[in-house]
């Protein structure tokens, strides 16, 4: 997950210099290693947590179902707005939040969607 945080920061820094012109979304695609889903001028990248095996009441959850993190970018003049929902383990919450905040990315919520899940997962909104 720290890799995703690094990539988000890299995209913000890389895109911010190009946003005054038209952002080069192919570069962002390359950084994230996948193409964005595009709706108008919003570019959304999905990050399902396929590296986690999470069970709830004995049922293994599919990563794309309840463990699907994402970030989306919308150019706004010479800046970009970012929104997202990162799926984190309990051990990842503090280091990911510290890195995001240090890079100027606002964390708007941390909460749990899955009561009784093992391991416990949290959802961090940026």
Describe the overall structure.
With 126 residues, the chain is of the alpha+beta class. It has one domain (2-125). It contains 4 helices and 9 strands; from the N terminus they run ααββββαββαβββ. α1 runs antiparallel to α2 (25-32). The chain starts with a helix and ends with a strand. Residues 15-19 have low confidence and may be disordered.
Helix content: 25-40%
> Strand pairing plus helix content: what structural class?
alpha+beta
Radius of gyration: 15 Å
Strand order, largest beta sheet: 1-2-5-6-9-7
Strand-residue proportion: 25-35%
Total strands: 9
Domain unit count: 1
Report the order of strands and helices: HHEEEEHEEHEEE
Largest sheet: 6 strands, antiparallel
Characterize the overall form: globular
Low-confidence stretches: 15-19
Summed over residues and divided by their number, the pLDDT gives a mean of 85
First and last CA, distance: 14 Å
Count of helical regions: 4
Jot down its keywords.
126 residues; alpha+beta; six-stranded antiparallel β-sheet; three-stranded antiparallel β-sheet; 4 helices; 9 strands; globular
């Amino acid at each position: 997950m720290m890799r995703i945080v690094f990539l988000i920061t890299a995209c913000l820094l890389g895109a911010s210099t190009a946003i005054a012109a038209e952002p080069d979304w192919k570069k962002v695609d390359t950084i994230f290693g996948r193409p964005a889903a595009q709706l108008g001028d919003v570019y959304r990248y999905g990050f399902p947590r396929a590296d986690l095996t999470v069970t709830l009441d004995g049922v293994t959850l599919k990563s794309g179902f309840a463990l699907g993190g994402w970030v989306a970018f919308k150019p706004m003049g010479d800046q970009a707005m970012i929104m997202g929902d990162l799926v984190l383990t309990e051990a990842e919450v503090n280091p990911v939040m510290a890195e995001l905040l240090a890079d100027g990315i606002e964390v708007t919520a941390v909460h749990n969607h899955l009561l009784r899940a093992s391991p416990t997962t949290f959802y961090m909104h940026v």
